[in-house]
Amino acid sequence: MSNLNLLYIELAICLITLIIVYKHSKIVGLYAYSIALFSISNIMSLKTITIQNFDLNLGIIPFVTVFIASNIIIQKKGPEEVKKFILFLIASSIIIYLFLYSKKLLISSNINLFTNISYDNIFNGSERIYFANIVTMLYALIFNYKLYYYLKRIKNKIWISNLFSSIIINFITAILFPILAYALIEEPIDIIKLIIIRYLISLIVSIIGTIPIYIANRIEVK
Amino acid sequence: MNEILFICILIISLVIIYITEKYLDKIGLTVLFIVSCILSYILSFKFATLSTFTFNCNAIVYVNMFTSLYLLLEKSEKKEVKSISNLSLIINIFIGLMLYLMASYTQSLTDTIGINMTNVFIENYRILIAFPISLFISHKILILIYEKVKNIYDNFFISTVTTYLAVGLIESIIYVLISYYNILDNQTIIKIALSTYMIRLIITVIYSIFLLKITNKKVKK
Fold first, then answer.
1. What pTM did the predictor assign?
2. Considering its fold, how many domains does chain A have in total?
3. A134: domain range?
4. Tens digits of per-residue pLDDT, A158-177?
């Protein structure tokens, strides 16, 4: 299956799970889902794929879906809850990386040796990309909740708040991540190409993500 | 080297549990439970050695997960904990799908990680199925047994260790059978299951003594 089709499947899985989880456990579900999304995004971002002659890191769809989850929390509970949400998200992703990295240092057993070695290789040289992803997420989430809430107060329309905050936030994340992860390693032209493709994909995901926000808005919170 | 690292991870885990239990209450324990579930899933692909034991790398995190579930059972209603356990199943299925999908993408020409992801997540697809199943069953049995043991002996140490003795064994057998039956020889399968079970049991005992001391201190105050 082509990479583009796999991206569509990934997007569908992310958005459907978002709705299922919210329906099942409301805000707690969104916390759990976002932690899962961000952890998986951090691991996925270690792999690069090619789409339409542009190289990009995987994990962009789960990364953007975290913003959709965060926007649902703002919509339902307000900005105070989002501050707690950001704290839990960043703390848990640091803990997850700490454990993954320390387990990589454990000397592997000879049983299933091939898998053990491959497993360790996944996290070789992962520090900078992981760090870039966490810093970008932290900065963008803080900026996003302030902007989304400001737009919500001016005009209480979900699509306006989501669209305008997406345009700005995705632009910032599309620039910040490649610079933090690849500056002085990759050629400037490659970084610019990465910024363009990341911005395009994240903008499309954010716009489609307005649908789950509308659906979640119709589901009552206890 | 492995022994020192293992002890360091154990101490860090204890500190995390202590902070969560003391300062973050139910939501913190729920988050810790989910984080432990995710970590156990991702770590379950690797085996390491400790002295002569070969164990699954998720041993410590796995006990973290069970411990946060015990603490949740102490602080919340059974229905609420069941709901959190169901949520963890959904999250695990989601993680499994995403890991499989991630490994299925065709990597770019410059990528060196993709082939390792294929070796881990596609070649061992049975673990992707085995883990959520064994975890869900073990959670259900844990909730059931813990309540019953607690009604007989109202002691945290006895309840947790007794519950683990039953749940850990069932989980280890289900997980190892689905993941490695017909891949590894029977002797190796039994060896892995028993050594992982034993190491988790030792960690459970350490955690239970530690948590018992904390709760006793609280009562004294």
1. 0.92
2. 1
3. 3-218
4. 888 888 889 999 999 999 99
